[in-house]
Amino acid sequence: MLALTCTLPTTFCGSARLHGHHRGCRDGGALPMTKKSVMYFWDPDVGNFHYGPGHPMKPQRLSVTHSLVMHYGLYKKMQVFRPYRASSHDMCRFHSEEYIDFLERVTPQNIQTFTKSLSHFNVGDDCPVFDGLYDFCSMYTGASLEGAVKLNNECCDIAINWSGGLHHAKKFEASGFCYVNDIVIAILELLKYHPRVLYIDIDIHHGDGVQEAFYLTDRVMTVSFHKYGNYFFPGTGDMYELGAESGRYYSVNVPLKEGIDDASYFQVFKPVIQGVMEFFQPSCIVLQCGADSLAGDRLGCFNLSIRGHGECVKFIRELGLPLLVLGGGGYTVRNVARAWTYETSLLLDEPVSSEIPYNEYFEYFAPDFTLHPEVVTRQENANSKQYLEAIVRAVAENLKCLVHAPSVQMHHVPPDMLPCSRKQAAGSPGPEDAASPSSSGNTTPLAVEA
Q1: Is 292 labeled as ligand-binding?
Q2: Which pairs from 371-376 meet CB under 8 Å and 24+ separation?
Q3: In which residues is substrate bound (predicted)?
């Protein structure tokens, strides 16, 4: 495969939290393992964009999710921020200037003047030009980048951006409904402070854009659980895509067949993640929670329940590392909202009722109005116990080829990335503002911790 890797940060601060202690965002010692400080990033405009009539990607799902999160009262248990909007400079940390310049200039009104560029940058049917395209990219990318900055400065244990997770975008082009790869940009920010970052992807589609970006490095391990075979998009993610050069064995792929259910999924998810944690020993995790792996998804073919999908999120949370949680795919709007709301509650360790509270999208959840609808199986589970056991064994054998926890040279804290204080964690500008997303002053708390 084509490996177009990122330029990794040349400085690394070796003082990032490894055991739950904070440099200065909170008073006192570490929080108990069950209760974690959570920051949630939400731009009120991000759900108002439209890919076009008939397109399966519907940003409105983000508004439906946010409404449900608010009406369950979960905002009382976390800090809700209006995030920074990423600049073209931020996007060019990974993407080419030519590509980002194109995204910034093209509109439905002037599209005829960009005929050659459209095919060059893979913009068309799957990735259409729509009103506000660049602003949309700026919003979801800025939120992921801001989450990474807050984690780096130890202002929270968990940062959530459900609008992010667009894992297919490539350095030079759009792909699979994704234009700017916010995940790669956030990981590059995390690498300033963390020697090793683990990326986990539970979207039904292979996380190809993230894997490709870090294919040659041993500082990022990418782990993707996805449908593979029968020409399923994007057609990558075979078990034998392992990484190359310094990154050999740092790409972990778990190719699954259609119809996988909760029990089968967890049969492979838990041992793979446990093995990865043992051998890679990351100090930070990025989790992409694509909801198209749920049963009944418009473009999916798995049989995961809301609870089953959430069990993966809960398992990662309980590993106790700084965690950036992102959205991703998901094309049955009501189920996307159910899953990400439920997973917000799990990340907060705050139980919620199965009864959907009344909200402006209440009719979306008819006829049962429940957070956990009965799973309707559309596909038989083609994943035998033997097949899944073989995958787990193969992954384990590949992990044994790693040198335990690759070493990274330590450097002093870069002067542009200073710890934020407790006051700054609540949204005030801080000393990191000179070179972080907070420099815009747009990181405004919409609701503070109750």
Answers
A1: yes
A2: 371/306, 371/338, 371/341, 371/342, 372/305, 372/306, 372/307, 372/338, 372/342, 373/306, 373/335, 373/338, 375/261, 375/295, 375/296, 375/303, 375/305, 376/295, 376/296
A3: 126, 176, 331
Delineate the domains of the chain, giving CATH numbers in brackets.
38-361+378-404 (3.40.800.20)
Give CA–CA dist 357/154, Å, rounded. Answer: 33
Given the structure tokens 């593979």, which residue do they identify? Answer: 228
Element spanning 272, H or E? helix 262-280
Distances (CA, A) of 419 to 8, 284, 286: 22, 17, 21
Q: What angle do CA 387, 390, 393 make, to 5 degrees?
A: 155
User: pTM score, two decimals?
Assistant: 0.87
Percent share of the chain, pLDDT over 70: 82
Q: Tokens for 36?
A: 């974690």
pLDDT for the residue 378: 85
Output Rg (C-alpha) for the chain, integer angstroms.
20
To the question of whether residue 43 is assigned a binding role by annotation, the answer is: no
Active site residue 168: yes
Residues in the chain: 450
Handedness of CA 430, 431, 437, 442 (dihedral sign): positive
Pick the closest to residue 139 from 168, 163, 171, 175 (CA basis).
163
- CA pair distance 10, 240, nearest whole angstrom: 30
Burial annotation 250-286 (CB, 10 A radius, 16+ → b, else e):
bbbbbbbbbbbbbebbbbbbebbbebbbebbebbbbb
Q: Is 203 annotated as a binding residue?
A: yes
The position carrying tokens 């009944």 is 296
State the pairing for strand pair 444-447/38-41.
unpaired
* 26: confidence class by pLDDT, cuts 50, 70, 90: very low
Taking the C-alpha atoms of residue 356 and residue 180, their distance in angstroms, rounded to an integer, is 33
Q: At residue 365, what is the residue type? A: F
126 labelled ligand-binding: yes
Report the alpha-carbon distance of residue 283 to residue 365 in Å, rounded.
Answer: 39
Among the listed residues 167, 168, 206, 226, the single catalytic one is: 168
Closest C-alpha to 161, from 287, 251, 54, 277: 287
Per the prediction, the chain carries an average pLDDT of 88
Query: pLDDT tens for residues 359-411?
Result: 999 999 999 999 999 998 889 999 999 999 999 999 999 999 987 655 555 44
pLDDT at 256 over 60: yes
Q: How far apart are the first and last CA of the chain?
A: 49
